[in-house]
Specification:
The chain has a single domain, classed as 3-Layer(aba) Sandwich (Rossmann fold), CATH 3.40.50. The protein has helices spanning about 10, 15-25, 45-55, 55-70, 105-120, 135-150, 175-190, 195-205, 225-230, 250-255, 280-285; strands at about 1-5, 30-35, 75-80, 125, 170, 215-220, 255-265. Helix 5 (about 105-120) crosses helix 6 (about 135-150). It is built from 11 helices and 7 strands. It is globular.
Length: about 290
Amino acid sequence: MAIHAHPDDEASKGAATMAKYAAEGIDVMVVTCTGGERGDVLHSAAEEEVKEHGIAEVRRREMANAVEILGVRHAWLGYEDSGFPDPEVQPPLPLPDGCFADLPIEVELVPMVRLIREFRPQVVTTYDENGGYPHPDHLRVHSLTLLAVEAAADPEFDSELEPWTVSKIYYNMQFARGRIYALHEAMIEAGVESQYTEWIKRMESRPDESHRITTSINVAEYFPQRDAALLAHRTQVDPSSQWFAVPVEVQARIWPTEEFELAKSLVPTELPENDLFAGLRTDVSAR
């Protein structure tokens, strides 16, 4: 189970890994906590569709296309996008009333626990304590996921469904500094202006967290699916953007993996790992 904040997060964070496991016959579910209603339209080609149908409906359609491409199941948690506060506005504006990050986390805990108990995942992936970046919805997803995994195993919590214990929790680490540098250098070596220059400047102002990576999954074969799923989110992704600046075959050669941090494991495993199901493989086949 991959738990995300908005439609398109699943396509930019761990999508190739999900596609790989789905292709291997493992049941994979994406949970999207909000509808992305406050997201900007970042690609002009989608503007007319949004004007006609509204951004919420268009993003629902995009999400349906993306999960079909990845070959995974999908569930909406059903909350309203909180928006990303403008850092230039001080003091920060309050969050919109009733949005995902504004609601008491206890309100959201019950439906998330029910999803976990219904789907019964052995592995859950989500964001780290920094949310990947400090969007209020990403920060809430981190907190909610950890609380929900704990509550799902508690027989005293919402006894409508049988308790379920998640064996492993991972944090997405797909934007590792080494990967961004490698893609940047590949463009420089090819004599092409790198679209990662500004990204690297921003990244260097923050601590390097590469040491947190415990698990690298070789998923180069599934990069085309990943890119197709990302392109399905037309409101958010321009085909000419930096996401697609380096050809897939070059990416496969210089950085063929997606990275994760093992945050919790109830089964023995040796680090570093090359499989999210390390320590669980006999159970996976029996599921």
